[in-house]
């Protein structure tokens, strides 16, 4: 496994691989890796001959400077974990490599509609930062496939639309959410939680599953169902940004006639903003 920080070195290696007709897979991360991240690398290896993982804490997608400053940076530990996977290159650019003229002068990518709702409504500009850095990383790595986790389902759809809209020759692959034993979706932000809070945080997944079971049992009063769930989980100490039942294909609000759904939640618990979702396919 190679550790690379230079764009020139990265492109030279990618060029050599392409000359040998090798397929290149890519997993972009912000580091502080956990088992969920490592599963994305293994997924990429199923589709590609060589796998590149990037580690870059992207300042353009943070709404608060304090949140950016607090984000854990564990590059040495991350690299050690990746040695045990199918990773071939860990690309760790600095901010000057990614934003050579600074963020104020950086051209930005805006993905219409899908980035405006849910997390986009609560974190203005966040998805512009995500779309911009992913586009830049795609142009640096030039992968054939890229893997993103379904925990960030809105992000996954946004990247798929970005690739389609800009005619990028990249296949985007979603990978199933990895969970703790209590159902809590694995996230780098989980380490902000105390042990008691981690136990409580499992209620997010259980609440989503309860909504799913209600839908499967014939309920179609979506607004009431979400409001009841919101009231129940707020009593356990959560501050809810949203609980919504959406069409899975585009995350627009679901109608009673829709059958392929995605139930999503974002909630603050203590110092951590947590997101999760489950799929629901009705007969």
Structure description:
With 283 residues, this protein is of the alpha/beta class. The chain has 2 domains: 174 residues, HUPs (Rossmann fold, 3-Layer(aba) Sandwich); 90 residues, Pantoate--beta-alanine Ligase, Chain: A,domain 2. It is 40% helix and 20% strand. The longest helix is centred in the middle third of the chain and has 16 residues. The protein is globular and about 55 Å long. The mean pLDDT is 96.
**Helix/strand class:** alpha/beta
Corresponding CATH superfamily of the largest domain: HUPs
Task: From the 3D structure, determine the CATH topology of the largest domain.
Answer: Rossmann fold
Main β-sheet, spatial strand arrangement: 1-4-3-2-5-6
Describe the sheet with the most strands. 6 strands, parallel
Q: Using DSSP, what is the number of strands?
A: 9
Which percent range describes the beta-strand content? 15-25%
Keywords summarizing the entry:
single chain; 11 helices; 9 strands; Pantoate--beta-alanine Ligase, Chain: A,domain 2; Rossmann fold; alpha/beta
The gist of it:
The protein is of the alpha/beta class and 283 residues long. It has 11 helices and 9 strands. The chain has 2 domains: 2-175, Rossmann fold, CATH 3.40.50; 188-277, Pantoate--beta-alanine Ligase, Chain: A,domain 2, CATH 3.30.1300.10.
């Amino acid at each position: 496994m190679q550790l690379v920080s230079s764009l020139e070195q990265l492109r030279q290696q990618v060029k050599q691989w392409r000359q040998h007709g090798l397929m290149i897979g890519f997993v972009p991360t912000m580091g502080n890796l956990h088992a969920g991240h490592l599963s994305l690398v293994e997924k990429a290896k199923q589709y590609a001959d060589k796998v590149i993982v990037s580690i870059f804490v992207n300042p353009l997608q943070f709404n608060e400077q304090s949140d950016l400053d607090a984000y854990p940076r564990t590059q040495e530990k991350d690299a050690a974990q990746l040695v045990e996977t199918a990773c071939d290159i860990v690309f760790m650019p600095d901010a000057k490599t990614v934003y050579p003229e600074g963020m104020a002068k950086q051209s930005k990518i805006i993905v219409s509609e899908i980035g405006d709702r849910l997390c986009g409504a609560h974190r203005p500009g966040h998805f512009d930062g995500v779309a911009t850095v992913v586009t830049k990383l795609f142009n640096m790595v030039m992968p054939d496939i890229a893997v993103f986790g379904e925990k960030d389902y809105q992000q996954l759809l946004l990247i798929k639309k970005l690739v389609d809209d800009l005619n990028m020759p990249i296949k985007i692959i979603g990978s199933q959410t990895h969970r703790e034993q209590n159902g809590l979706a694995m996230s780098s932000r989980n380490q902000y939680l105390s042990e008691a809070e981690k136990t409580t945080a499992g209620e997010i997944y259980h609440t989503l599953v309860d909504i799913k079971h209600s839908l499967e049992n014939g309920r179609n009063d979506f607004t009431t169902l979400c409001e009841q769930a919101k009231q129940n989980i707020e009593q356990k100490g959560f501050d809810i940004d949203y609980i919504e039942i959406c069409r899975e294909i585009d995350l627009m609000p679901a109608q009673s006639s829709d059958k392929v759904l995605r139930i999503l939640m974002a909630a603050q618990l203590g110092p951590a903003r947590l997101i999760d979702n489950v799929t629901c396919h009705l007969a």
